[in-house]
Amino acid sequence: MNNTAWLARVLLACLLLTLTFSSSARDLDQDEALRLRREGLIMPLEQLLQIALQRHPGAVLLEVELEEEDGVLVYEVELVTEQGVVRELELHAGTGEVLKDEVDD
Question: How many CB atoms lie within 10 A of CB 86?
Answer without folding.
Answer: 13
